[in-house]
Request: fold
Amino acid sequence: MEKFRDLCRKIITHKVFEWSITIIIIANALLIGVETYAYFPTIAFIQKIILGIFTVEILLRFIARQSLKEFFTNGWNIFDLTLVLIGYIPEDLFANSQMMMALRVLRVFRVLRLLRAAKEIKLIVTVLIRSMISMFANVILFIIFIYLFAIVGVSMFKLPDPNTLTGEDKVHYEQFMELAPNSPSNSPDPFGTLHEAMFTLFRELTGEDWTDLRYNHITAYECGVIKVNPRIITGYHVCWFVLAAFLLLNLVTGAIINNYQNVKDEQDKHKSPNPEDDPPVND
Reply:
């Protein structure tokens, strides 16, 4: 048994085997894309063959394992095993069309096997996962600020309900909507509710139309719809964009760079001859 295990280790660590699996993963990803255009029986048959190859690969890695704990604590092994098992679930098992759709979507995730095609890609994935875990404090800080600015934004920029307006107020509101309608036209008031204000601030964070929001609010002031001075309007939008786009995002960037260096140092210290021994997450 030990000789057979050693043989399996030699197979899965051989360059020809690694490159062959990588090519098959790429072919599988391309065929999944082709299947979005139309159903081809030939492609479906090839996909079954590829699924069989992936099954043999995971079995070889299971046999070549150092221990059960070593195999099942490796994030890449769990990832691959899950995708292979999903591939064997028959679609006709579910009468519910939504369940079938969910199953097909999960099978599409086989494209993500491309992430393990190269050591550098696996390193980047490890860094991203490590960063998401370690950036909890940054996320809390971001939520605090976006919540604070959203409350301030609703307090200052919430537009009145047109159904409750009468007389001159209604005329001013209609004039404002002609000069500065919501963009797109079917969107609600950007600061009409707290959750919509938080989404608006997130949109500003991406640089999407944040200056247009400022101009619209100034127009609303000029039309008498809101009572906030243009200087305060400008200060609010500029402060949020500077805080979010230049400070909060830079904290995220700094955390990712720091984790990249840490993971690189760890992999250099504990370098293994078998690249499969490196899990995507090393807590």
Q: What stands out?
A: The radius of gyration is 27 Å. The chain has a mean pLDDT of 81. The domain at 2-117 is CATH 1.20.120.350 (Four Helix Bundle (Hemerythrin (Met), subunit A)). The first helix runs from residue 2 to 13.
